[in-house]
Amino acid sequence: MNRILLILLLFAAGLSGCSKTSNNADAINAQLVIDKKVITSYLKNNNITATQVDSSGIGTGIYYTVDTVGTGVNLYTNSTLVTMSYTGTLLNTNGTLGAVFAQTNTPPNNFHPSFVLGSVIEGWQLGLPAAKVGVGGTLTLYVPSKYAYGPYAQPQIGLPANAVLIFNITIFNITN
Fold first, then answer.
1. Which of 61, 89, 123, 153 could be a cystine partner for 161, CB 3.0 to 4.6 Å?
2. pTM recorded for the entire structure
3. How far apart are CA 98 and CA 40, in angstroms?
4. Where are the beta strands (DSSP E) in the chain?
5. pLDDT tier at 14, thresholds 50, 70, 90
6. 142 close to 168: Cβ distance less than 8 angstroms
7. Residue 154 Ramachandran class (φ > 0 left, ψ -120 to 50 alpha, else beta)
């Protein structure tokens, strides 16, 4: 009898853990719908023609524009080392630009960090390869919160939970 009760208790605990994960995933996906509307509204209101990043036939809600194609290698993998400068700006829920929260190309230092693509936010992991920008290229990424920091606020850089982000990026080097 004790074994049956123990098995039932473990089964119930396992099911309750699954529902919490499902509720969190449902909330993130519901937020993605909101974020997509914010991004597409911003693009439309500012007459920006952007391409949506496609992942296995499904639109992600990440959009990009290529301002300059660049030259040379534009092949990106998870282990690609990318040297770049970028400016990150918050896109408010009302479709207006918010504060700049990160900037690497500020004088006099003009710092150009290098990142392994597999270690950055998912919006960059999906957006950079889709844009196919080579060395010297510039692009803008419009990233829904699901592919950035999700429901987690980033107070150290001034971002609220579910922040929709815009990144203006210049590629200086690509190493595979």
1. 153
2. 0.84
3. 16
4. 51-55, 58-68, 81-91, 97-103, 114-116, 138-143, 164-175
5. low
6. no
7. beta
